[in-house]
C-alpha cells in the first residue's frame, strides 16, 4: 500500500473510527480509539455541540466488581452512522476506566486528526465519571488544541490534516473517561453516493457494552454486508431504515501467517449505495475523464511528441512513457481540495513535478493514449486485493490506482508510483488480485493475471576454487546484481556514511551469499539504464563438507532444497484455507566449484537436472561435474499467487520427493583430514593464493573486523607457523577478548611457553569461571609436564564453581591414573555414579581410564562398547577400545576400531600413530608422518600409556 494514499481510507470510512488515544491497555490487546474526520461544512477548529438528534444515545454502564478490580476496563464502545443526501455522519461514544496510576499518562491524552477542507470534527462531551459525580471538562473550559502540521509528510503525504489534542486535567485512579463525538463527510466526487465500512471489535477487548447502528432514508436503495455471527438486523422506522448489529464484538479467528490476505482482514460491516461495480467505475470516470487531456501547446505535449519521434514501437513507447512518469515525477499524496478521489490534471502534475497514485496514473494513461496506445486507469487494493470479489461494491475498498495498457491484445499493468521499471519489466503483473477499470460505460472487477517476472530481480554468479583442498579456506569470486529499485539502501547511503561504515554494509550483503568470509576485494556499481546495482567481491570462505559414512560430502544448497512448506492446516477452521506463495520473485543463480587433483575420485550424486513447479514456483536446475569442475545453474520464478488448500498435501509430497534425491558431491573415501591436507598442500606449494588472499583480506577489512584475522591464524596453525598464528591472535584478542580466544592462544603457547599458556588460561577463567574447556586445557598442560599434584590442585580449585561433578570426576580420574594411582582413579569414577543413563560421560571416562592404564580388565571392553553406543561421533571411545584390544593382543579388532575412528575423525593423531605401530604395514611410515604433523607430541603422549614404539 502506498502510505501517502492511506488517507483515502481514513477519510472515507465514516464511522470506521475510534478515539486515537495512543493505546488502550487490555492485557495483550490494544485498541486505538479513532474518530474519522470531515463533515459537510469544513472548519479548521473543533465544534462543540450536543449530539445530533438522530443518535440513540447509550448510557455508560455501571462499574461492577470485575471492572473495579481491573487495571483497565473498556466500558462502552458505541458507534452510529447516518447516511443521507450524500453525507455520512458518524457518531461515537467511548468510555473506559483507568485503575492503575502508571496508565494515567498513557490514557489521559486524547487526540484527533481531520482535514478541515473536507469537513469538521464535533465534540459532544469529554467527561470524567467519579463515583456519583459527573465532571464535564468541556463545560469547565477545557478545549482541544489544534496542531497545524503535516503529520504524514515523512510518508510523502501532503493531506492538510490537522491534529487536535486534549490533555485531560484532574484525572485520578479509578476515574471513568468518556469521549463522545461525531463527524460528517461528503465528497463531491461520489456524485451523491455514499459508502461506509465498519471494522467489528475483537471481543478480546472485553467491552462491557458495545453498539453499532447505521441509518439511511427508506427511499434510498442501500446494499449491506455483515458476518452472519454479527447478528445484523434490518428494520424500517418510517422514513428511516436502520441496520443494527446486535453483536458488534466478535471473536477474532486466528489465521495462519501463510494464509492469503482475504482471510486475515477481520470481520467488517459494509454499507454502500452503489448498485454494482459498474456504478463505482462510472462514478470514478466522472472524476478522471474530464481531466484526461494534455494542452497542445504545453511542455508535456512536447515530451509526448519526443517519445513518438524516437520510436513507433508501442512497447518501446509504453516503456518510455512509464519511465518519464516514474523518474521525472516524484511521489507526493495531495489530499486537499477534494484530492482523495479526484486526480490533478496531467499538465498540472507535469508542472508541479509531483503527484500521487491518482495523478501519476492519469498522467500515464493520458500520455499512452496520445501515443496511440489503449490505456485505462484501474482502481486496486494494494494490501488485500484478493478479497475484492467478496467485498461490497464501493470506493472504500480501494487504496491505490494503476494503469492497464492493451497492446496487440495483451494487457500490461503499469504502476507510475514505482521506480526503476524498464522495458523488460512492463509485462510483469502486480500482486493486487483484482482491479476495477475506470470507464464511462462502467466495468466489472477483473482478475489481474499472475505472470513470472520478466527479468530476474537478482542474479548471482559465485565461483569457488577449492583446488588447494576442500577442508582449507576456499577462494571465491562473487558477482551479485539486483534491481536497484527493489533495494536502494546502498545507493542512497553512498557518500552519506563513512567509508568504513559503507564497507561494512557491502560486506553484510556479501555475507548473505558467501558466509564466514575474509573479503580481499570488493566493489559496487550502479547502472541507471537497467536499474541495476552490482557488487563484486573476492576473498575466502570455509565451505562446509560433512563427514558421512567415512567420507566427505557437500550437499548442493539449491533453492528447491532449501524450500520449506510449513503450512499448518491442523485446525478444523483452517482446513479450507489456501496457502499464500508470498512475494513474487525471479532469481538466477550460477555456481562453480573447482575441486582438488582435477576432481580425481570425486562424484556427483543425486538429481542433477530439475524442471519442477512446486509451491507456486518454477524451479529449473542443471548441474555437471567434469575435469574437476562442478557447475550448477539455477532459476526460480513465482508462477502462482497461492496454492488451494486441497493441493497442499500433494505439494508437500512433491517437495519431499525432490529433496529425497538432493544433489551432493562426494569426495574419495580415503580423502585426508584438515591437518593432513594442509601439510600436503604446503609441501605441494598450493597455499600461495590462499595466503595472498588472506593477507589482502586482513589489510582491507574494516576496523575491528576479526574474521580475516581468525581465518589466517587458523591456517598458520594448520601449517605449524605458530608464532604467526599467535601474532594474529594477539590482534584478535585486542579487538574482541573472549574465553575461547584466550584458550586458543594458550594451546599455541603450550608448545613453547608454559607460563604464557597458563596466563591465558587464567584469563579465560576470569571471563568464564565455570569453563570446563579451560579446566581441561589446564589439566592437560600440567600433565604434559608430569605435574600431577598441580593438576589435582587445579581441579580442586574449580570444584563448586559450576562445573558438573561428573566432569570433575572424569578429569580427576585421568590425572590419578596418569600418576599411577589407578585404584583411586576408579574410586573417583565409582563415587560419581555408574548409571550411563544419568551420566554417559562417566562411561566414556571409565573406558579411557581402564584402556589407557590397564585397569578394570574384566570390564574395559564392555565399558568402551557402551561408550561407543552412547556417542553419536564415537572416535574417542573407538580409539580407547582399540588400545584395550591391542593390550589384549587382539590386533585385528584393534585395527578395525582404529579404521572406524579415522572414518569419523580423519584429524586424529592418536589413530594414525596407533595404526602405524599396531598394523605395521606398508602405510605405517605414512601414518606416522600424518600423526606427527597433526600433533608433534603424539609420541610422547602415547609413550606414557605404553603405546609408543
TrEMBL record:
Location of the DUF3857 domain: 85-229
Limits of the Transglutaminase-like domain: 304-378
Record's protein name: DUF3857 domain-containing protein
TPR repeat ranges per the UniProt record: 875-908
Organism in which the protein naturally occurs: Flavisphingopyxis soli
Keyword annotations of the record: Repeat, TPR repeat
Amino acid at each position: 500500500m502506498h502510505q501517502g494514499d492511506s488517507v483515502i481510507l481514513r477519510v472515507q470510512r465514516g464511522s470506521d473510527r475510534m478515539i486515537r488515544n495512543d493505546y488502550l491497555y487490555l492485557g495483550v490487546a490494544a485498541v486505538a480509539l479513532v474518530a474519522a474526520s470531515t463533515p459537510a461544512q469544513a472548519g479548521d477548529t473543533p465544534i462543540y455541540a450536543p449530539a445530533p438528534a438522530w443518535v440513540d444515545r447509550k448510557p455508560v454502564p455501571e462499574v461492577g466488581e470485575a471492572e473495579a478490580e481491573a487495571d483497565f476496563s473498556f466500558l462502552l464502545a458505541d458507534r452510529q452512522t447516518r447516511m443521507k443526501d450524500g453525507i455520512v455522519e458518524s457518531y461515537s461514544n467511548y468510555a473506559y476506566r483507568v485503575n492503575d496510576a502508571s496508565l494515567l499518562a498513557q490514557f489521559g491524552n486524547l487526540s484527533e486528526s481531520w482535514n478541515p477542507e473536507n469537513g469538521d470534527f464535533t465534540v459532544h462531551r469529554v467527561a470524567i465519571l467519579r463515583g456519583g459525580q459527573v465532571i464535564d471538562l468541556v463545560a469547565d473550559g477545557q478545549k482541544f488544541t489544534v496542531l497545524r502540521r503535516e503529520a504524514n509528510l515523512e510518508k510523502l503525504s501532503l493531506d492538510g490534516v490537522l491534529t487536535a489534542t486534549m490533555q485531560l486535567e484532574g484525572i485520578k485512579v479509578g476515574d471513568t473517561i468518556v469521549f463522545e463525538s461525531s463527524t460528517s463527510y461528503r465528497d463531491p466526487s461520489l456524485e451523491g453516493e455514499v459508502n461506509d465500512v465498519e471494522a467489528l471489535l475483537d471481543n478480546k477487548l472485553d467491552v462491557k457494552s458495545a453498539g453499532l447502528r447505521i441509518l439511511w432514508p427508506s427511499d434510498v436503495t442501500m446494499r449491506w454486508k455483515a458476518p452472519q455471527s454479527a447478528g445484523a438486523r434490518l428494520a424500517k422506522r418510517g422514513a428511516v431504515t436502520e441496520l443494527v448489529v446486535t453483536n458488534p464484538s466478535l471473536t477474532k479467528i486466528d489465521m495462519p501467517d501463510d494464509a492469503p490476505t482475504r482471510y486475515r482482514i477481520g470481520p467488517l460491516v459494509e454499507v454502500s449505495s452503489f448498485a454494482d461495480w459498474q456504478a463505482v467505475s462510472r462514478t470514478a470516470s466522472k472524476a478522471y475523464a474530464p481531466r484526461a487531456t494534455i494542452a497542445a501547446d504545453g511542455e508535456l505535449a512536447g515530451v509526448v511528441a519526443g517519445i513518438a519521434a524516437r520510436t513507433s514501437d508501442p512497447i518501446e513507447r509504453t516503456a518510455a512513457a512509464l519511465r518519464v512518469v516514474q523518474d521525472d515525477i516524484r511521489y507526493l499524496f495531495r489530499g486537499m481540495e477534494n484530492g482523495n478521489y479526484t486526480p490533478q490534471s496531467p499538465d498540472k502534475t507535469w508542472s508541479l513535478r509531483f503527484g500521487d497514485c491518482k495523478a501519476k496514473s492519469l498522467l500515464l494513461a493520458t500520455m499512452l493514449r496520445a501515443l496511440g496506445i489503449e490505456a485505462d486507469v484501474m482502481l486496486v487494493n494494494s494490501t488485500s486485493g484478493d478479497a475484492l470479489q467478496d467485498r461490497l461494491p464501493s470506493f472504500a475498498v480501494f487504496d491505490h490506482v494503476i494503469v492497464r495498457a492493451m497492446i496487440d491484445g495483451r494487457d500490461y499493468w503499469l504502476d507510475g508510483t514505482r521506480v526503476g521499471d524498464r522495458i523488460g519489466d512492463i509485462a510483469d503483473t502486480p500482486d493486487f488480485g483484482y482491479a476495477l477499470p475506470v470507464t464511462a460505460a462502467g466495468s466489472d472487477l477483473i482478475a489481474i493475471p499472475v505472470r513470472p517476472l520478466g527479468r530476474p530481480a537478482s542474479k548471482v554468479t559465485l565461483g569457488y576454487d577449492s583446488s588447494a583442498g576442500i577442508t582449507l579456506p576456499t577462494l571465491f569470486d562473487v558477482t551479485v546484481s539486483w534491481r536497484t529499485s527493489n533495494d536502494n539502501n546502498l545507493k542512497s547511503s553512498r557518500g552519506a556514511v563513512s567509508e568504513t561504515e559503507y564497507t561494512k554494509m557491502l560486506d553484510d550483503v556479501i555475507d548473505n551469499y558467501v558466509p564466514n568470509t575474509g573479503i580481499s576485494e570488493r566493489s559496487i556499481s550502479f547502472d541507471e539504464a537497467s536499474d541495476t546495482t552490482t557488487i563484486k567481491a573476492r576473498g575466502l570462505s570455509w565451505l562446509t563438507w560433512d563427514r558421512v559414512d567415512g567420507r566427505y560430502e557437500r550437499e548442493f544448497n539449491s533453492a528447491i532444497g532449501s524450500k520449506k512448506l510449513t503450512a499448518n492446516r491442523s485446525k478444523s477452521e483452517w482446513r479450507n484455507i489456501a496457502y499464500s506463495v508470498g512475494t513474487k520473485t525471479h532469481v538466477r543463480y550460477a555456481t562453480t566449484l573447482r575441486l582438488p587433483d582435477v576432481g580425481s575420485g570425486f562424484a556427483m550424486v543425486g538429481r542433477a537436472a530439475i524442471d519442477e513447479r512446486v509451491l507456486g514456483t518454477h524451479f529449473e536446475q542443471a548441474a555437471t561435474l567434469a575435469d574437476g569442475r562442478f557447475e550448477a545453474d539455477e532459476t526460480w520464478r513465482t508462477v502462482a499467487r497461492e496454492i488451494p488448500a486441497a493441493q497442499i498435501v500433494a505439494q508437500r509430497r512433491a517437495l519431499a520427493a525432490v529433496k529425497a534425491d538432493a544433489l551432493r558431491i562426494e569426495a574419495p573415501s580415503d580423502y585426508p583430514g584438515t591437518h593432513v591436507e594442509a601439510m600436503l598442500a604446503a609441501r605441494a606449494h598450493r597455499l600461495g593464493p590462499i595466503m595472498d588472499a588472506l593477507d589482502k583480506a586482513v589489510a582491507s577489512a574494516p576496523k575491528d573486523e576479526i574474521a580475516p584475522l581468525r581465518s589466517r591464524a587458523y591456517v598458520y596453525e594448520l601449517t605449524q607457523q605458530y608464532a604467526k598464528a599467535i601474532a594474529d591472535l594477539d590482534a584478535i584478542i585486542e579487538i574482541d577478548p573472549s574465553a575461547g580466544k584466550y584458550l586458543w592462544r594458550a594451546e599455541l603457547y603450550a608448545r613453547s611457553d608454559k607460563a604464557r599458556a597458563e596466563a591465558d588460561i587464567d584469563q579465560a577463567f576470569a571471563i568464564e569461571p565455570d569453563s570446563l574447556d579451560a579446566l581441561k586445557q589446564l589439566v592437560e598442560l600440567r600433565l604434559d609436564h608430569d605435574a600431577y599434584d598441580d593438576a589435582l590442585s587445579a581441579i580442586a580449585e574449580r570444584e563448586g564453581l559450576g562445573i558438573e561433578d561428573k566432569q570433575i570426576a572424569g578429569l580427576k580420574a585421568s590425572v590419578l591414573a596418569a600418576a599411577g594411582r589407578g585404584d583411586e582413579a576408579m574410586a573417583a569414577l565409582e563415587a560419581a555414579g555408574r548409571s550411563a543413563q544419568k551420566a554417559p560421560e562417566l562411561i566414556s571416562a571409565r573406558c579411557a581410564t581402564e584402556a589407557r592404564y590397564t585397569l578394570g580388565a574384566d570390564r574395559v571392553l564392555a565399558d568402551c562398547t557402551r561408550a561407543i553406543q552412547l556417542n553419536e561421533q564415537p572416535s574417542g571411545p573407538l580409539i580407547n577400545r582399540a588400545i584395550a584390544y591391542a593390550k589384549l593382543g587382539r590386533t585385528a579388532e584393534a585395527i578395525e576400531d582404529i579404521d572406524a575412528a579415522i572414518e569419523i575423525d580423519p584429524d586424529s593423531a592418536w589413530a594414525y600413530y596407533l595404526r602405524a605401530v599396531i598394523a605395521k604395514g606398508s602405510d605405517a611410515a605414512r601414518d606416522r608422518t600424518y600423526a606427527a604433523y597433526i600433533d608433534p607430541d603424539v609420541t610422547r603422549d602415547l609413550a606414557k600409556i605404553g603405546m609408543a614404539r
